[in-house]
Amino acid sequence: MTSNPTGRRVTVDGLDSIAFDRTFRAGIEDVWAAVTEPDRLARWIGEWTGDPSTGSVDFRMLYESDEHQAEVLTIQECQAPRRLVLMSQVPGEELVWHMTLTLVEHEGATTLTFTQSVGDDPSTAGGVGPGWDYYLDRLVAAETGGDPASVDFGDYHPVHTRHYLDMFS
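RE: above sequence
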């Protein structure tokens, strides 16, 4: 498979971020479920555990190495099925990621716009950009009847690293 970098530079709440769009021929409730329900998430990215009513859950990406710790996702805003704002941090680490998921339905299609901050170090864009293109293409595969496992990380990283580094230099 050949991939193309799809992210664009944006500023969200004063933070340098990368935004990605994916459009699905599905209703907004269905796409919301694909990005929030544990069994649907597990098909393309990972799993969360805990009780979201407490304001946070533990999240573990399934396709990272075993050395990758679970992150704490703090739910800053949840307006189902249109907007979810999260803050992610690995316990004991200083780096904090800010993520926003916005869904808009129009004429039977729903567009998901996902943004993630790149932190104080613009060089992180070289990992953030290709990583989210990869995971969001896995989401598209999972939601369109494809096989997420057919999406190869090697088609994204390090192939698109320079594109995202240049975006923030």
